[in-house]
C-alpha cells in the first residue's frame, strides 16, 4: 500500500468523504440516515457537511432566471376556473378582519411548532430497502499529495460514464489543464480526456477503455498542455489520484 492509500484509510479523510457523499446525494437510504444522525450528534462532522454544501451550492446559482410571460398567470387562473385579476371582486382577501385573524392563527401555529420542536424526536421509521438498480454508486476519492480531497469520481459502468466532482481550485498559472487517466494494474496510463477543476461534469468513457474501469485500477489527474487532448501519455505532474476500491 502506498502513501496515498494510507491517507485514504485515515478516519478524518473518511469523514470528509462521507460528508461529500451526503451532500452529493449518492448515499443509500441506510447510510444517509446514519449521516443525518451524525450531523445531529457530531459537530465536527456537521461542519464537514456544511463545508461541502458551501462548495457545491454556488453551482446552483449559475442557472439563468427566466422571466415568465405576462399571459401565463391569467391563463392559469382561467384554467383553474378563477376570475381574472381585473374581474376579481373585493372579498375575503381584502378583509382586514380576516388578515388579523390569520395573523393570530399563524402566531399560534408558530408557537406550537416551537413547542413540538423542543420535544424529544422519535427515531425515523425504517425505509424500505433500496432496489438494486437505484442503489447509490460508490465514490472514488482522488486526493492531493497532502491528503486533501481534489475530486470525487462516481463510476457508472452500465452507461460508460464517470461523474467528476471537483473541490474548486484556481486554474494553472501556466495555462495547463487537468487530464484524467485510468491506470489499470500493471499497465500504462490511458487518457479519459479533460477534467474540470471548477464544476462537476460527466466524462463519457470510450468503449475499448470501459473494461479497464475495474477494482484495483487507479484514477489519476495530471497537468497537461491544452493542445492535443487526449494525449497518448502523461507528461506533467500528478495533482491527484485514487484507487478504485469498489464499483
Strand count, sense and closure of the main sheet? 4 strands, antiparallel
Number of helices: 7
Query: Can you tell me the residue ranges where pLDDT is under 50 for at least 5 consecutive residues?
Result: 1-11, 130-135
Element order, helices and strands? HHHHHHEEEEEEHEE
Q: Describe the strand arrangement of the main beta sheet, using strand numbers.
A: 1-2-3-6
Percentage beta strand? 15-25%
Number of strands: 8
The termini sit apart by 20 Å
Helix content: 25-40%
Helices and strands: which structural class? alpha+beta
Mass-distribution shape: extended
Overall average pLDDT: 77
Rg of Cα set: 25 Å
Task: Describe the structure concisely.
The chain has helices at 3-8, 11-24, 29-41, 43-56, 72-79, 96-118, 207-210; strands spanning 139-143, 149-156, 161-166, 177-183, 190-194, 201-204, 218-224, 238-243.
Descriptive report:
- By secondary structure, the chain is an alpha+beta fold.
- 33% of the residues lie in helices and 19% in strands.
- The protein has seven helices and eight strands; from the N terminus they run H-H-H-H-H-H-E-E-E-E-E-E-H-E-E.
- It has helices at 3-8, 11-24, 29-41, 43-56, 72-79, 96-118, 207-210, and strands at 139-143, 149-156, 161-166, 177-183, 190-194, 201-204, 218-224, 238-243.
- The strands form two sheets. The chain has a four-stranded antiparallel β-sheet.
- A hairpin with a 4-residue loop joins strand 2 and strand 3.
- The longest helix has 23 residues, at 96-118.
- The radius of gyration is 25 Å and the shape is extended.
- The two termini are 20 Å apart.
- The relative contact order is 0.12.
